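Need residues for this backbone.
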């Protein structure tokens, strides 16, 4: 197994903005067994517009960084193509080459919503 560490920009065509497609709590595991039922952080699933919409899961230790966004809002944004844009602070991505495939995982310090031009115009 080969491993490469890079930044979000390195796997997103030098872009810093991603499209939110899901979020959930994540838990510590030892092997394939959950250590306990207390979440250690949040996992944000995003699409990378600078990488042909490839999916990436970004984990952040601690509380939900975007608590006002619900699963229903995420679904609605995707179906209407009014995407929820997210940026991450200090996002480190690890790319693994396993067999013939590539797998990416990421950790960041924080996440924040990005105001799109269309949403800024709607609010004005």
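Answer:
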């Amino acid at each position: 197994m080969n491993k490469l560490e890079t930044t979000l920009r390195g796997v997103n065509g030098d872009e810093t903005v991603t499209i939110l497609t899901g979020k959930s709590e994540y838990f510590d595991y030892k092997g394939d067994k959950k250590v306990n039922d207390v979440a250690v952080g949040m996992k944000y699933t995003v699409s990378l517009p600078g990488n042909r919409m490839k999916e990436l899961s970004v984990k952040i230790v601690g509380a939900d960084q975007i608590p006002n966004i619900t699963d229903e809002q995420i679904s609605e944004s995707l179906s209407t193509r009014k995407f929820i844009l997210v940026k991450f602070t200090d996002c480190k991505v690890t790319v693994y080459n396993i067999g013939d495939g590539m797998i990416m995982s990421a950790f960041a310090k924080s996440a924040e919503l990005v105001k799109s031009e269309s949403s800024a115009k709607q609010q004005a």
